[in-house]
Write a structure and sequence with these properties.
Blueprint lengths: L2 H36 L3 H34 L14 H6 L7 H12 L6
Helix pairs in contact: 1-2
The structure holds zinc ion.
């Protein structure tokens, strides 16, 4: 596995996401002020602002994972599943270079997350 390749992709992602998060936050604030002023409809402005923040929040979540992954590159544990230490599929790393899970454990977590309602 070519760690340098993934490290470079993660660094690029970190830069792109950081820049975008800054813009989204500015935009959301700008829309809120403009629309609340012009239209006098605070609820529409609220909506625009919260959509912006939701995207920024999503980007922040990915950014955190990208930074975690860069930490694993530094530790020398990048590419190993954090559940069982097994290798993460290269195809998976190509698609989601920040993933800390192999396919098997990612799927298990998704199942666990979607069946959070107690079944007692
Ligand atoms: Zn695993």
């Amino acid at each position: 596995m070519n760690i340098q390749h993934y490290k470079q992709r993660l660094l690029d992602l970190e830069e792109t996401l950081s820049a975008r998060i800054g813009q989204e936050a500015d935009q959301a604030r700008g829309e809120f002020i403009d629309e609340a002023h012009d239209v006098g409809d605070a609820s529409a402005a609220d909506e625009a602002a919260s959509e912006g923040f939701t995207e920024a929040e999503h980007d922040s979540a990915v950014l955190r994972q990208v930074r975690d992954a860069l930490g694993r590159v530094a530790d020398g544990t990048f590419g190993a599943c954090i559940v069982d230490g097994g290798p993460i599929e290269e195809q998976r790393l190509e698609a989601v270079p920040w993933t800390p899970y192999c396919l098997k454990h990612a799927q298990r977590l998704e199942v666990a997350a979607s069946s959070r309602t107690p079944t007692l």
